[in-house]
Design goal:
The protein is of the alpha/beta class. It is built from five helices and five strands; from the N terminus they run E-E-E-H-E-H-E-H-H-H. It has a single domain (4-163), classed as Ribonuclease H-like superfamily/Ribonuclease H (Nucleotidyltransferase, domain 5), CATH 3.30.420.10. It has helices at residues 38-56, 74-93, 103-114, 126-136, 148-163; strands at residues 4-9, 13-20, 23-31, 61-65, 98-101. The protein has a five-stranded mixed sheet, with helices on both faces. A hairpin with a 3-residue loop joins strand 1 and strand 2 (13-20). Helix 1 (38-56) runs parallel beside helix 2 and helix 3 crosses helix 4. The protein is globular and about 40 Å long.
Length: 166
């Protein structure tokens, strides 16, 4: 059964999910650290990814939600791309193919999971995303990720399964 490692990268938090089709195995949000010490959190991310590989691997793919645009703050932008670079470099060094999904496509997938009409001029609320995760993984509130970043990572994994089904 295919297994993916999915991410929702941010400059302070990294949402992480490990999933199989219809089954959310692990979800968490990793606090990647202080913007004042980006090199330290690069190492922290790599160490944590190695722990996930040992505990849950191997993976068929690594999936991440691509930030929509460069943030207005240059420092924030640099930190965000540092996190994404660490995830991408780790994936390549471990031989995992990387699949990225733009936020608009992820939100469209969210609506599809719930059978809602898609409106490209608005985006689903955090509550709707949480409902989509519950529906996609046939789970209840007690086993759903506790953080919006982990929810987005879990939804990105489900979008990969939907795209690669059959």
């Amino acid at each position: 059964m295919p297994r993916v490692l999915a991410f929702d990268p941010g400059y302070r938090n990294l949402g992480i999910a490990v999933a199989e089709p219809g089954r959310l195995i692990h979800a968490e949000t990793l606090l990647v650290g202080s913007p004042k010490a980006p090199l330290k959190w690069g190492a922290r991310i790599l160490d944590h990814l190695d722990e996930l590989r040992i505990q849950y691997g191997p993976f068929d793919a690594v999936v991440f939600e691509t930030p929509p645009m460069i943030p207005k703050n240059v420092k924030t932008s640099a930190l965000l791309w540092h996190v994404m670079g660490a995830v991408t470099a780790w994936s390549a060094s471990n031989g995992y193919p990387v699949w990225d999904i733009m936020p608009q496509k992820l939100k469209r997938h969210c609506c599809r999971v719930l059978g809602m009409p898609w409106n490209p001029k608005s985006q689903p609320s955090k509550t709707v995303v949480k409902q989509a995760v519950l529906a996609a993984y046939h789970t209840d509130e007690s086993s759903r990720p506790r953080d919006d970043h982990a929810d987005d990572a879990a939804l990105a994994a489900d979008a990969w399964f939907a795209k690669n089904a059959g």
